[in-house]
Design brief:
4 domains, single chain, 5-stranded mixed sheet, Rossmann fold
Length: 602
């Protein structure tokens, strides 16, 4: 049956077709839809979970692979940092059932802190890497990744980038085969990592690298295309861009398409080098293919010009495109493959719209309350990863630091130990608190730190699409589970000052922060208010134009996208307003009230 599928959906259905039985992961754009699709299309024999973080997810998948079943764990590129500890050791232990670690890289970056390239992790961890160039290829390739995983007894990385993950194409979807029987977990000392075992297995891993390189040189998805004297080396989505850029001029080039960047298919690459006069490499994100070619040339004493990121011929940051590649080829080799985008007549201009907190977002109220309470005092506001990172934008200006998930809590501690005349706040969301925040709070209590923890509990994992987490009381598959309370955890850790309140009660929120600021030790304020995207308020606000004095305080201090200014008066866009009422609590004349039904109808 032919279906129109997003790349992540294609990967998910490919994994189901391959017989995956256990799927775990942590949400992160652009990876999230893989696990969600498996949950939605589950034939009934697949266990699926949103794990508390990527490390937990990878270890769950590893345990399943020890029994012989096929497992999959999903995450984005920065999530692999969290999962790297078990991943680095797992290759020394090995697996029995095929295990694929799906990691989505984010060139741009569009929604991430970094542009890190997961292909490096393959070389670092000494495990194979698969890099699909399209959703269609990804659908088939993930099954092949499981096969290679089982053949060599190793987890494998399946690295896709944003444009593969989120492109939509029509794919012929196969029927799901009957599940194969598995042996189950067999007790053996090989599952217990010891230094001597690691030493012995390291020797096997090094030997395996050469076998995989030779195997990958014959892998059908690594191929040489064309007979031209100019060589183009590429892989992943860059191959799709190259194919589009060369359309009508293919005879000039030989394209080496790399689907398995590690171990690099050296024999295939050597053929490519001998076939062409010069080479240019196009790839996202780093110069992995380019460096491999330079290494092969050095190893075999070959002399050829290799252009790419190392020669500044290709941009070393951001996404590529067929247009960028065509322009680089035009400039480098004197071709006329394309008309530069800048020369297109009447090209449409798009307005740059910076990301902002949603209208009615309770995080806006939380930030504003803390800001008002600490006005005139010395305070540092440590942020974290989530929707609330947007609190750094004007007019709130309430995120002074943001490093990675959970780091706001520990950054605040380091600031206090170095500079004790400041009140240090750490903001963290409810999902992030469970994923990577608890350890930092324990560290603060144990080391007697003076800080205020602000938990922004909006009852969801909002930024990545409203996935459940341990505080919701519902699993990925919709089962009701034990609801884990943030307050209970903080009490168990040893906090004595814990306040829970609604941030939309601005007066009480400000008073509570002022009270906490006068105390010592680790204090916690839990602001509880549901995300407006999952709890729509049917009431809307409107401005009494007779009472509005045009001071713009509601706009200048809150930055709510529902509020604008027209003809000297504030206006509220009913289609955006969620009726939170924060604006009226800020307004000096209280001119903002509930819109009646007749007004809303208009």
């Amino acid at each position: 049956m032919t279906e129109l599928l997003m790349g992540n959906e294609a990967i998910a259905l490919g994994a189901i077709k391959a017989g995956v039985r256990v799927v775990s992961g942590y949400p992160g754009t652009p990876s999230t839809e893989v696990l969600e699709t498996i949950a939605r299309r589950n034939p009934g024999n697949i266990y699926v979970e949103w794990s508390v973080n990527e490390k937990a997810g990878l270890e769950v998948a590893a345990g399943a692979a020890y029994t012989g079943v096929r497992s999959l764990v999903t995450m984005k590129q920065v999530g692999l940092n969290v999962a790297s500890d078990p991943l680095m050791s797992l290759n020394y232990i090995g697996i029995k059932g095929g295990m694929v670690v799906f990691v989505a890289d984010d060139p741009g970056p569009i929604s991430s802190q970094t542009e890190q390239d997961t292909r490096h992790f393959g070389k670092f961890a000494k495990i194979p890497v698969f890099d699909p160039s399209s959703p269609e290829e990804a659908y088939e390739m993930i099954g092949e990744a499981f096969e290679y995983s089982e053949k060599y007894g190793t987890p494998v990385l399946f690295r896709a980038t944003t444009r593969v993950c989120h492109a939509c194409v029509s794919i012929e979807v196969s029927e799901v085969p009957e599940p194969k029987p598995v042996e189950g977990f067999i007790k053996d000392n090989k599952w217990v990592i010891f230094p001597r075992l690691s030493y012995q297995n390291k020797i096997k891993i090094e030997a395996r690298e050469g076998l995989l390189s030779e195997d990958f040189s014959g892998y059908q998805r690594n191929e040489l295309i064309g007979t031209g004297r100019i060589g183009i080396a590429c892989g992943g989505i860059s191959y799709a861009y190259v194919a589009e850029a060369l359309e009508g001029h293919e005879d000039i080039f030989t394209v080496m398409k790399i689907a398995t960047p590690f171990p690099f298919p050296e024999r295939l690459a050597a053929r490519f080098i001998h076939q062409v006069d010069q080479i240019i490499a196009f790839e996202e994100l780093d110069s992995v293919i380019e460096d491999a070619l330079i290494y092969i040339c050095g190893k075999n004493k070959l002399t050829i010009d290799i252009l790419g990121k190392r020669t500044s011929t290709v941009p070393n940051a951001g996404e590529l495109s067929s247009m960028i590649i065509a322009e680089i080829l035009d400039k480098t080799f004197g071709f006329q493959l394309s008309v530069p985008y800048s020369q297109y007549p009447d090209r449409p201009l798009t307005m740059v719209r910076p990301p902002v907190l949603c209208a009615g977002c309770p995080h806006r109220a939380s930030f504003y309350a803390v800001k008002q309470a600490m006005k005139g005092g010395k305070a540092v506001f440590c942020g974290d990863i989530g929707c609330y990172t947007l609190g750094n934008a004007a007019p709130l200006d309430m995120v002074d630091t943001c490093l990675c998930m959970g780091a706001g809590i520990t950054i605040a501690q380091g600031l206090w130990h170095a500079e004790k005349d400041s009140v240090n706040f750490a903001f963290v969301g409810d999902s992030t608190f469970f994923a990577s925040g608890i350890t930092g709070v324990i560290n603060a209590v144990y080391n007697q730190t003076d800080m205020i923890l602000i938990v922004l509990d909006n009852a969801t994992t909002a930024m990545t699409g409203h996935q459940p987490h341990p505080g919701i009381g519902k699993t990925m598959m919709g089962e009701i589970s034990q609801k884990i309370g943030i307050r209970a955890i903080l009490e168990a850790i040893g906090l004595s000052y814990i306040k829970e309140l609604d941030p939309l009660d601005l007066k009480k929120s400000i008073e509570t922060v002022r009270e906490a600021a006068l105390l010592g030790g680790v204090r916690a304020i839990i602001y509880k208010s549901p995300c407006v995207a999952i709890m729509k308020n049917e009431k809307h606000k409107s401005v009494n134009k007779d009472k509005c004095i045009g001071c713009k305080k509601c706009m200048k201090e809150l930055g709510c996208p529902a509020i604008s200014f027209h003809a000297g008066k504030a206006e509220i866009e009913r289609g955006l307003c969620n009726g939170c009422g924060l604006c009226n609590q800020v307004c000096p004349t209280a001119c903002i009230t509930d819109a009646d039904s007749t007004e809303v109808a208009k």
